[in-house]
Amino acid sequence: MFVNFRRIRKWQFVQLMTACLVLSVVMVCWEQLDNHVISHAKSYSYRYLVNRFTYINKSFTISREQARSFSSFPYLLDHPDKCVDKDVLLLLFVKSSPGNIERRNAIRSTWGNESYIQNALGVTVKVVFALGTPPAKKAGLSCSTGSRVCFQEQLAREDRLSGDLIQQDFLDTFHNLTLKLILQFHWMHSRCAHARFLMTADDDVFVHMPNLVSYLQDMSSRGVTGLWVGRVHRGAPPIRSKDSKYYVPFEMYQWFSYPDYTAGAGYVVSRDVADKVYQATLTLNASLYIDDVFMGICGNAIGVSPQEHVYFSGEGKAPYHTCIYDQMMTSHGHVEDIYDLWKAATHPQVKQKTTGLIGRLYCTAVKMSLLCKPYYLNTYPCKAAFF
């Protein structure tokens, strides 16, 4: 059968060419379409129609003997007496790589300065850094021999000065982040169980400590329990593209959707939730190396759901503005600018400029212009402008 092109009208020809073009684009972009559109459709269908998260608990449950392999690493650096104070408002664990000495020093000098927090804010916050062992010749430490022993000696010297490194003997890599998460909850259980709250954060996160302390004091005075707060991801599907840093094979996680979880950049749990998560890690398979997703699996197992706080950032960096600083909790992606941001965000003029009717109206307008963008920034959502 042959097509008589002479009988094809102009508009029919345009339709044919358009269909061919669309089909070609779909074929070329099918992998991206499958990863971003179809995977999310499957995820939401699974989450809201099938709702089989109970199967996730069963598939990840293992014996205590098996689970012990994820938490039985010996401590290389430890401070069992770090929490001798009777009243600890917050135990703050910073996930850090061995080579990130400058980042740790910056945190110690700014938002993680325990003396400042005690003297200026009147509460006890314990800040410690969670580490594994440095990969040889890739740790970023100044060691001429490139040996792991030499790197470890430098970490020991740093710890003698700072007294805040908590290190276990597992390789510090992206694929061992879940081990680092387990380290934090087990350390709190055995060393600092009386702390009212636990926070975990990355070492490139800025924490507005005055705002956070005020928020946690309010939660504590109200006797809030079951608290798990941060930037919440709902209905997120596993990434099946092997090119992605967050690739998860089907054999590791066979479901279409993850349970709700908070962005690993920074989140807070209350003492009772921390204890329940610790208990969950005693019988869960921690081979899933995306730590914030594993936290979501733990939350699903213990029946605790994360709560959204609009001023906890995701992967994005918060806009630089006085009106943002007034309510900021965390902002992600700060290294070189952390000193300047700390000085600007905690300046007394921030509260002066943002209080009163005029100040509030002004800041609402400013935050709308900064946060209500037509494209996704992965920082604070538009609704944060009205808080």
Strand content: 5-15%
Uncertain stretches of 5 or more adjacent residues? 26-36
The first-level CATH class name of the largest domain: Alpha Beta
Describe the strand arrangement of the main beta sheet, using strand numbers.
1-4-3-2-5-10-7-11
CATH fold group of the largest domain: Spore Coat Polysaccharide Biosynthesis Protein SpsA, Chain A
The H/E string reads HHHHEEHHEHEHEEHEEEEHHEHEHHH
Q: What can be said about the biggest beta sheet?
A: 8 strands, mixed
Please give the count of helices.
15
Category from helices, strands and their pairing: alpha/beta
Examine the secondary-structure arrangement and name the CATH architecture of the largest domain: Alpha-Beta Complex
- Whole-Å distance between the termini? 67 Å
Main location: Golgi
Protein name: Hexosyltransferase
GO molecular function: lactosylceramide 1,3-N-acetyl-beta-D-glucosaminyltransferase activity
InterPro entries: Glyco_trans_31
Q: What is this structure, in a nutshell?
A:
It is a single-pass type II membrane protein. The protein is α/β, with parallel strands linked by helices and 387 residues long.
Q: If you had to describe this structure to a student in words, what would you say it looks like?
A:
The structure is a single chain. This protein has 15 helices and twelve strands. The protein has 387 residues and is α/β, with parallel strands linked by helices. The protein has three domains: 9-50; 65-308, Alpha-Beta Complex (Spore Coat Polysaccharide Biosynthesis Protein SpsA, Chain A), CATH 3.90.550; 322-386, no CATH class. The strands form three sheets. The protein has an eight-stranded mixed β-sheet with strand order 1-4-3-2-5-10-7-11, sandwiched between helices. The chain has a two-stranded antiparallel sheet with strand order 6-12. A two-stranded antiparallel sheet has the order 8-9. Helix 7 links the parallel strand 3 (125-133) and strand 4. Helix 8 packs across helix 10 and helix 10 crosses helix 11 (291-302). The longest helix has 21 residues, at 30-50. The chain is globular and about 85 Å long.
